[in-house]
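Thread: zinc ion complex, take 2
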Amino acid sequence: MVSKKLAEGQSSAVIIEKFASFLKEKRKRNTPERYKILDKVLEFSKQFTVEDLSRAMRDDAFLVSRSTLYYTVDLLVEAQILRKINTGGSSIAYERVDQVQHIHLKCEVCGKTKLVRDTAFMAYMNARKFAAFRTRYYNLTVYGTCNDCMRRLKRNRGNNK
Ligand SMILES: [Zn+2]
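Output below.
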């Protein structure tokens, strides 16, 4: 099914190949660290920060310097494998370019972001043309309160009575 394939994005092999030819073209070094970082990046199914990536690498007992992480993520953006997302706050998040755009549900209390798919909305947005404008991608974030925070807030309100 075509839509399933789209939803999952490109295969890791295709992306790794894309990165390899990017490095070659830009005459950048083909270091094992860069591929290890890309492997980790491909495990994220939603947006992530360099901090998240750093934690995931540490969990894997693979230690790389913060500057290597930032530099590699920048290379992945330049190679159009990742894109930067403005999350509204001061932090910068990244997501894979090949993945179908999701709606981000961001909790304003705990800051957690959940991804949801809405096929009807995506179909509408993918077909939407704007006058005198060429869309490259879109990014929709819905702000509100998650269930966990809602419960906690309700409980706290109860205690204050
Ligand atoms: Zn929350």
